Amino acid sequence: MLKKFSTKNNFSLAIFYNNILWYLFSIFIFSRLFYVIANWNDLKYMSSFSDFFATVDYNFSLFWAIFGFVLVFLINLRLRWEKAIKYIDSLVLAFLLSLSIWYIWALLWWQVYWANTNYWIEITYTNSFSPISSTPVFPLPIVYSILFFILFAVLYILRMYIKIKWFIAYIGLILFSLIIIIFENFSGKTDMFKNLIFINFNQILAFILMIFSFYRLYVLSKIWAKDTTIILDHK
Predict the structure, then answer these.
(1) How far apart are CA 28 and CA 23, in angstroms?
(2) d(CA 166, CA 163)
(3) Among 15, 96, 101, 214, which one is most buried in terms of CB atoms within 10 A?
């Protein structure tokens, strides 16, 4: 998808391809580190430092994986003397599409904890490797996959008609955050934040991302009021 967008929006994929190992390393370190922090009550008893790198389950933080990617991306932008303007819409759309695929993978490899519900849409995991109970549970990865694909498709279509740069990206981040805030309530996993304030770490970070995106839309409206040509895509 990024390759498709690179042709339309005139940017080079080298910023991604040439640094793919740095992206991988940063995503792993940050997503694993902050998962450990959020679950410190359980993981503080790790027997050795190697346990930090060895995982047998979905023990990573989604939002800090995003942070790890963005950090390397921004560093590369600075080194290349580029701005994020021409990338952000494409990155958000490609991210939403990748999520819809990733959650199918998570379903097939038993990597998501789900809560027990009674909505008549539950599924049962019977595989011995499943980290959740064998009772019917809410099909969270299926719901996430469908919702993120719908969100991607709607925003992709709107991008053809809305020529305001960054608008689609921030709307996408707001709706992504809203989906996480709502549906993480159906996750069967807990962390020390959920035990204290009834929402988990991902929901807290989703609130922060939503506030940031609303702020950026406010800034966008101010730019629009001054000069519409600055943020219009004339292609």
Answers:
(1) 8
(2) 9
(3) 96
